[in-house]
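pipeline/complex-builder :: batch 7 item 3
reading input block
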Amino acid sequence: MLSLLIWLPIFGAVVIGLLPNQVSALRIRQGALAITGIVLLWTLGLVTQFDLNNPGVQLQEYFPWIEVLGLDYSLGVDGLSLVLVGLNSLLTWIAIYCSDVNTNRPRLFYALVLLVSGGVAGAFLSQNLLLFFLFYEVELVPFYLLVAIWGGVKRGYAATKFLLYTAVSGALILAAFLGLIWLADASSFAYDSLLGQTLPIGLQVLLLSGILIGFGIKIPLVPFHTWLPDTYVAASTPVAMLLGGVLAKLGAYGIFRFGLGLFPEAWAKLAPWLAVWAAVSVLYGATAAIAQKDIKRMVAYSSIGHMGYILLGGAALTTVGIVGAISQMAAHGLILALLFHLVGVVEAKVGTRELDVLNGLMNPVRGLPLISALLVLGAMASAGIPGLVGFIAEFLVFQGSFAVYPLQTLLCVIGTGLTAVYFVILLNRTCFGRLDNAIAYFPQVTWREKAPALILTALILILGVQPDWLTRWSEPITTAMVAAVPTEQAVQQIVQVSK
Amino acid sequence: MLQTPVQPTTQLPPSRHEFAEIIHRLEAGGAMLPDTPENLKQIIGIYKAYAVPMDFYWRDLLYIAERVFLDPTPFFKYFLPPEYLDLPNHYAGDDADLRIWRGEADAHPELRAFLETGELKRKLPRLLHHLWHDRINMEFAEACMQSMFWHQEMGGRFNDFLDSEAYRQNCDRAIKAYFQGNPVMLGLYKLFPEMFIEQVRQRSYYANLGLFWEVMAPVFFEMCDRYTEGSLTSVPEAMNFLVDGIFAVAGRPIYHHVYIRGECYEIIPKSQGFTWLYEAALPYVEAVFYRVSPFRGTRSYNAQVGQVPKDQRDFHYGILYADIFPVGSAGVPPTLLMQDMLHFLPEFLREDYLQHCRGEDDMLIQLGVSFQRSMYCVTSAVIQALRTALYYPLDDSNPKHLEANRRFFEAQLDRFKRPEARLGDIQRQDYR
């Protein structure tokens, strides 16, 4: 059942890639939509099969593959991965839906998007470290090509930078995985078999550091973030949605699954520093966003800040904090996808993303009133305004972390305030004010362009007023993860024993 | 499409004015608006769309001035009684003083049809149509009247007369007759006579504007008919038709009569000798085209004590200067005029709008821009008429006369040097 989420898109990518030239871009797009539509429906079916009371891995699939390497085809889903698999399926469908009907080289474009979708789903579902790594690496080249071929200005530079950073990320993760196997003297990369490893705390910290930096590049966290603004800005709208909505979450997922999951003692030891790291990321992302003149770059920097909340929730090591962090992954994915889509529409219609040029888009007759209104809503959601999904995620993170790290939490709360600052700047300059009638001959926004934004907005609103529909999936697994973390005394004992 | 730059046709060297090309065009007998088929289509279409609500405006303005008068609760002043719909226009119909339009003298058929069923195309009680804003929006007409009232010293002798003793005595008679048997209102009049007289002054401007538009509506109808017939083929022809019309009716009396219980009270008698051109047309153009509301959001003025600035540069909302976008989104009176005109757009103009910009969705804006164009054509006619009246023929052989004409044109166009003026915009066909 889970395999279909991986192999249908990959199989679809192969078929689309081999289609003859005579097939029109529209047909190819429809085909890709159909495939991802099936995947999305399949994911919904998966949700109905999911047992909310079971904190363990469910719906498992297992096939031995290369036993000598400890590699097996082992899939499963739990409350952490289910949310992200759903996000991946949804955003891939939306990204394809809002792609240009007349995309250049459509076979390659849609094949790569489908390949990314399958690879990301595989990474989320893998229960074997090596299998995870293979799927993790699957998305590397497709994303590079998606940015390098269909990107905007400086796409070559941005794609290369992305490739280099991601390659280093992959190398660090692989090194950490191999180190774990070697040091733990394990015979398999199976996730379950590695859960009970009893490495000395120093080695755990070392391996965890590799994982944190490796996945920290992918999220990205400061100071490994410099690829992000360039890549997000250079990427076309659908690709930016996938980069911010899905790929960054893969990094966050990796930190929780393999960092917290495999090295809970080391995690507990490093947690105060992780909280500091989170606060620095949040404040840096927010202040850098304030300084931007390009609205897409501003949204990109906001992403850096918002990913910091996820790390803070994880560092707190409380059930509420981690549930908040997982919710933030989904909430941020939805909000960022909405913002990138809206920014893309603004750029397509107005021809610029420059804050100093944009003005008065809220004008009901010649502006982009619906897009502006949704931009306001997206900004509100990102700033954590109550009633929207961003609020509940950030609130849970802060609630879970305040008792443990009050100062870092307060700094992150200030970051939320700064989010409101830069979004007010964005909205004030972009949506409000006087529309210059010398340039205000923008094309109308079509329903095809409105639909993705409306779907995402509906989800942001629904999950905002009914947050239980978002949080309940991850509560059991979160409780189990927190229970697996030793108490501070136990950590001290482990440290003493190690010495 | 831009037309080829107009070279000076006079013996004078080329003008060095910022709008030299437009001045040369005016000297050649043209308008400020370039002569293109597209411009002609837009202005004629708008004249027709404007004339139908204008046919309501002038009738209702006269109704308010003559019948509603000082009603302290004028809730139904926009509910025009049948006799005012049947009121014969003096410049249309078989019995016209001067037949400008070949149509009928009573209310235009399209206006009657609209008043019957409105935009909803359903016959409902009149009050429901009114409350639903499915009506002719008299607020625009009143805003124009108020603009003339505020700015006051825009030429002519009309405003001076409103402060004369003769006017006060006429008002006094009418006020006492109107409130006969109403001791409360008469007592208030005794206590605050100036307040009542100021209200009558405003009613006099209602009458003034009503009489002005009574002329313009048939002029615009006739222009549209001629365009449809193919006998009006260029912007200068349209402008000259307006110039001829201005001179034909220049001497039309401007007066204010009030009818109380069947008796006519002459607040401003025809014998005062106020004329259409000097006491209505020129003040109207100056106040509405160049100035309009003096309120810019941060200051307000007391018109009664003469606080309204005299400098035209203090005003941005005259139709020749107004930015259609904010106006279109702010719900101020010109928006209501656009809404009124939208109901009566000729098909050829509607088709044109549908093919440009956002079609149906921003038709009001396109319509507003066309209205701006058409009013530049009217202003051109006024400038040419003034030149005819005060200066020299365009084909005068005396260079000094031509020089005087040029100075006049340059002085007129100096008023459009301000960045808010749309003169530069309307030179471009893609300004929509």
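note: Chain B is about 55% helix and 5% strand.
queue -> next item
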